[in-house]
Amino acid sequence: MKRFIGFVIVCTLLSVSALAASNSQTIKLSGAVQVGSTVLPAGEYKVSWTGTGASAKVTLEKKGLPPVTVPATVVEQKSNHTGISTESQSGKDVLKSIILSNVSLNL
């Protein structure tokens, strides 16, 4: 019985870590963009998200910078390309969405 419980615990931990890994990908920003009230410089960022639908949170992380977390809507969809969508506001490019291989994150 103890072995079975240990096996269940190990399987649960492995599946949780696998699900967490699938909710993060890397994107490259070719120029500075504003995310919320923060302007992120060009570079490679780890994008991770928690939640589903309109109640999600997206975090962008780059080594040497504090992470930026903003509310978002997750739309599950397959895409052959990854990228971002921006909108110019007051002379700044504001990040509106992140298109990844299996989801779009609308900010």
Task: Give a description of the structure.
The chain is 20% helix and 50% strand. The longest helix is centred in the N-terminal third of the chain and has 21 residues, at 2-22. It has one helix at 2-22, and strands at residues 24-29, 33-35, 38-40, 43-50, 56-61, 68-76, 83-89, 92-99, 103-106. Strands 1-4-5-6-9-8-7 form a 7-stranded antiparallel β-sheet. It has a two-stranded antiparallel ribbon with strand order 2-3. A hairpin with a 2-residue loop joins strand 2 and strand 3 (38-40). It has one domain (25-106). The model is unreliable at 1-21 (pLDDT under 50). With 107 residues, it is α+β, with helices and mostly antiparallel strands. The radius of gyration is 17 Å and the shape is globular.
| Biggest sheet details | 7 strands, antiparallel
Low-confidence stretches: 1-21
Counting DSSP E segments of at least 2 residues, the number of strands comes to 9
Spatial gap, N to C terminus: 48 Å
Q: Strand pairing plus helix content: what structural class?
A: alpha+beta
Number of domains: 1
Order of helices and strands: HEEEEEEEEE
Radius of gyration using CA atoms only: 17 Å
Q: Can you count the helices? A: 1
Indicate the mean pLDDT.
Answer: 85
Side-by-side strand order of the widest sheet: 1-4-5-6-9-8-7
Question: What coarse outline follows from CA principal-axis ratios?
Answer: globular
Query: Helix coverage percent of residues?
Result: 10-25%
Strand content: over 45%
